[in-house]
Amino acid sequence: MKLNSFISVLFAALVLSACTDMNKIVPEGGTLLASQLKETNAAVPSRASAAFVGLFNPLGNPNYFGYGTPDDWGVLMMLFCNDVEGADALLPDSNYNWFSVCGELSSRTASYRNPMIRYRTPYMIIANSNDFLAGFDDNVTDQESIYMIAQAKALRAYAYMLLAQDFQFTYTIAKDKPCVPVCALDIEDPANNPRASVAAIYGIIMDDLNDAVSKLAGYARPSKMYIDQHVAYGLRARANLLMGEYADAAADAEKAAEGYTPASIEEVSHPSFMDISEHNWIWGFDMTADVAKTFKYATSSSWLRSFSSWAYAAGAGCYTMINKMLYDKIPASDVRKGWWVDENLQSPLLDGLTWDAGTAGVASGQAIPLFEFDDKLAFLPYTNVKFGCNPIGTTDNAEDSPLMRVEEMLLIQAEANYKAGNTAKGMQILNDFVSTYRNPGYSASASGRSFEDEVWFQRRVELWGEGFGIHDTKRLNKPLVRFLGTAESTNMPPAFRFNLAANDGWLLMRFNNGELNTNFGIVDNTGGSLPKMDQNPSLRDGVTD
């Protein structure tokens, strides 16, 4: 039995739902009433600032819930799962793979820790934001407080957006269907809190983001960890894209991108995507060595980065790889072809790198993939080298993670303009981005794909490993296609080798036992069934055909 399939004994203690046990503001055990919080924040503004900083911890702090397991690292873990549940990212099917539930899509099992964490994390963000916002009067005039309030609302919107994409199909085809419960301080009966509709949840999302965009004008953040107006525009661009409001999505993405330029061909010609100061990042999680050391195995560096000496990736051979179906479609002239080693374990991104393991030896360049010692196994074919470590062979695992890049905003502009009827502008944006920053001589019309599929292809390559996998598949109402009818068409392990139709109910997450046992108003998702090896071999997605 795989490690990640064990039911943690900690679940027995989690008998209250994410929203139910976080709604309470009665003064038990020193908890302050909302009225007391308002008085305290007014009298001691530094108290609000300290609470505000903590709002960002669920984005990526290791061992956030204290499970003591390598799959407890907040929103970054959720984003990792989104990719591994999709078609383009995979890990080996081994006893060290804590995310095999995502590969086999048994992550719908209500008693598993994986879906528990993925449910509790966004609701923790929502509940923390609710509590923080309850500490302010409606007529607050202090400008720093206004900026903090706006960011709390943007975080709350982001959390609801993550939940909405997990628990229901996309807005454009399912806006009247049940989504997730609303978590609010004024819920009359948390034990009978049914699922709100997709439209209702997006109403909350848009209200929060509209307010955040308005209130963050002029805000200069101290770090890209925080949310400024560009981030708020970017989040609203995502929401508008999900809702099919394409003209608004394009306009918001353009505003989010102002002042940012994509990483150049030279800049992505070596492992990167590891430092929040990278000029193309609009928003990111700022990992520090002090935070990482609380549980270094529960970090993106342990799972997504192939160059860490304190990792499940290198140490246990759980490298995150690209599906060769997508890799084979990337032109040799595209710099991103080198973001993964090929079937012979070669990549131009390795040139000039050195892995110094001290007494265990030193390897440089193309010798790195086969270099082995106690803390590193050989790379596997199609292992990613997109995400770097500083230095190669680090044991700190303090690499930062991107949450929003300007490249995503350009791809939203391309897709949204095209779908809004401004087809020439959409095609021009895509051509300019790819030909200037990734593949000289590129032409979108030369691919033979529809424009929608071509943008999706570019998203799948450019944003690989950044958390858009299964969510984009559902947003576009596309089938999940992991193999093309034969085992030889893919490097997916046999247990993960299957396809699902776009309307298969198994694509929807299930509510965990903790929620079902305490919120009796929920009617769970029940459609579909656990996929079987080699099922639906004839399905195609328009990109990897």
* Distance between the ends: 34 Å
Q: What pattern of helices and strands is seen along the backbone?
A: HHHEHHHHHHHEHHHEHEEEHHHHEEH
Strand order of the largest sheet: 1-3
SS-based structural class? mainly alpha
Which residues sit in consecutive blocks of at least 5 with pLDDT less than 50? 1-17, 20-33
Principal-axis shape equals: globular
Number of helices: 19
Structure description:
The chain has helices at residues 34-43, 45-54, 74-84, 100-103, 113-133, 143-167, 171-174, 198-215, 229-243, 246-257, 289-292, 300-303, 312-316, 324-327, 406-419, 423-437, 451-462, 469-475, 513-516; strands spanning 89-90, 281-285, 321-322, 354-356, 362-364, 401-405, 480-481, 499-500. The protein has 545 residues and is mainly alpha-helical. It has a two-stranded antiparallel sheet. It has a two-stranded antiparallel ribbon with strand order 2-6. The longest helix is centred in the N-terminal third of the chain and has 25 residues, at 143-167. It is globular, with a radius of gyration of 23 Å. The two termini are 34 Å apart.
Fold blueprint:
Elements: H1 34-43, H2 45-54, H3 74-84, E1 89-90, H4 100-103, H5 113-133, H6 143-167, H7 171-174, H8 198-215, H9 229-243, H10 246-257, E2 281-285, H11 289-292, H12 300-303, H13 312-316, E3 321-322, H14 324-327, E4 354-356, E5 362-364, E6 401-405, H15 406-419, H16 423-437, H17 451-462, H18 469-475, E7 480-481, E8 499-500, H19 513-516
Helix pairs in contact: 1-2, 3-5, 5-6, 6-8, 8-9, 9-10, 10-15, 15-16, 15-17
